[in-house]
Automatic annotation (TrEMBL):
Transmembrane segments: none annotated. It holds the Pfam family PduV-EutP. It comes from the Bacteria. Keywords: Nucleotide-binding. Belongs to the EutP/PduV family. This is EutP/PduV family microcompartment system protein.
Length: 144
């Protein structure tokens, strides 16, 4: 199994994605601090929204095999600067969340472009609420 660290803005769906990957009941929970699980590291949205936390992300990434940049597919903006993923000496993937709420293919492509620009090597589109394409991500991460 690959250990993944999830990074994204407040409300991007990191914690909900964590719950889906762990086959837990989906319920809203605001992540207040970095949360470590056996195979998932869930980071607060404030860590990408405030550059002063970037060093904490780099240090925490030492415990991960894969960095997952999480982008809400309904959000017209991105918090990830170009080449953001290059600061990590790890594999970087992108995860477009909330694809069930995405109004058009154009919006989804925009989200994928945000993630590619940030340095994601592969991009997955998922819906944690509908469990849509979660299995593809689990397979990639070798989750059972």
């Amino acid at each position: 199994m690959k250990k993944i660290m999830l990074i994204g803005s407040i409300g991007a769906g990191k914690t909900t994605l964590t719950q889906a990957l762990k086959n837990e009941i989906i319920e809203y929970k605001k992540t207040q601090s970095i949360e470590f699980d056996d195979y998932i590291i869930d980071t607060p949205g404030e860590y990408i929204d405030n550059k002063v936390y970037y060093n904490a992300l780099v240090v925490t990434s030492a415990d991960a095999d894969v960095i997952g940049l999480v982008q809400d597919s309904t959000d017209e903006t991105s918090s990830f600067p170009p080449s953001f993923g290059n600061m990590f000496n790890k594999e970087v993937i992108g995860i477009c969340t909330k694809i069930d709420l995405c109004e058009s293919e154009e919006n989804l492509k925009r989200s994928e472009e945000f993630l590619s620009s940030a340095g994601a090597q592969y991009v997955f589109g998922v819906s944690a609420i509908n469990n849509e394409k979660i299995e593809e991500l689990k397979k990639y991460l070798d989750f059972d």
